Amino acid sequence: MRRHTRPSLYLIFLLLPLSAAGQQQGGSETTSIVEERKQVLLYGIETEVIDVLDRIKTEPDPSYIEPLKALYGQTTSKKLKTAVLAYFSENGLPDLVPEAKETLDAYEDAFDTFGGAFLGDVLEYLKEVSPRDCEEVLATSFDALFSLNDEGLKTTLVRIAGDLQLSRHLERIRSIAEDDTASERIRMEALKTLGKMKDPGALETLRDVFDAEEKGLKRAACEAIGFLADPSTLPLVLKALQDQTDPYLRATAVRALSRFPDTEEIEVALQDALRDSFWRTRVAACEVLGEKGSRESIPILKYKAEKDPEFQVRQAAVKALSTIGTREAVGFLEALLLNERTSFQLRPVIAKELIDRHFSSVAETIEKTMAQEWEKENSQLLLTICKELSLKSDPGLSSLYERMLGHANFIIQIYGIEGIRRNRLTSFIPRLEEILATSKNNTLKKYAQAALDGLK
To answer: Where does the UniProt annotation place the signal sequence (predicted)?
Structure first.
């Protein structure tokens, strides 16, 4: 017998914007969910705005851009400015570049008002969405920003110099890496940056640090050696992989190995790292083997996905198999997804990977899984599947969206509406108008109105 129960409050608040969860009844006029969020962005208090920004990160809408630009320019709240930067950065949106450059032009005022960490965030945003603009800014202001004497900002500047290959600053970075009096934090970043810049003159420094006792510096040197990938340093990395005094060094060594040319010796070392007692080392090995597309590692990754004692490792093994993407690897993940004895934590991870990377070849498996979960109360797996389907740009999913609209759980109905809106499925306009006219759930109506606004 089908149970028509309310979704838990936890699930509601995971999905819905501020205030919507408590407004399920009443109201003769419906404001779309997008318009409601824009009003919060323009007029809400700090905590409300940050809450909305957290919720819309994964569902960017062009209509949010202008309100957010206005907010960035008007607010004196460091938290809000940082949250707005994060939204534009994580969605790869260059629309805030002029405002970011203005902030950096007036860097002294920004530093006095918001501190070095904020300036670092602005630089990171520029680097992510417009590297050329970031390089132009730093061509004239690197030294001035460095002179502000904020350790966090200095560390960011050194990191960005490496990411953008700003070789004009190489001498300064070398001097930091070799300076025993510099703080460990900035010295570690300088060592890693020498590796990113592939500075051959850094090998001697890196070898010296590698033989030192400071664990943090040794890890940074190991990472830098990986970036350089000089064959003469491979024995150092393999030795680090056996270091029993610092498990984090072993995990770093796995990452370093990923940048050396593929050899049988490295493949064996990476597979052996999957047996390491430290779970982070096993996770790193899974990730690297996936990135390398190692078909030879499929048998052990299958074992890890199913039986490793740590969830993080099982999750990493699933993602590695998905990345490798052979029929054997994907077929194993499909079977694991359909098996109801598979960990309830892992099945959503598998579903997300299959939908994101392999949907055209696994659609039948996804539909079978939905059928398994359809009648279950508050199935997290079904919610995950429906959410991921709602994020896909594929008009061929219209039958699944239609099915979602008929589910008892209004959150799943909302995912159906969001899929319809994303794919501009105008054939659903009458159905959305029906929801708007007849539903007693005010939140559902807000999403229906937003979809209708976008479709008409």
So the answer is: 1-26
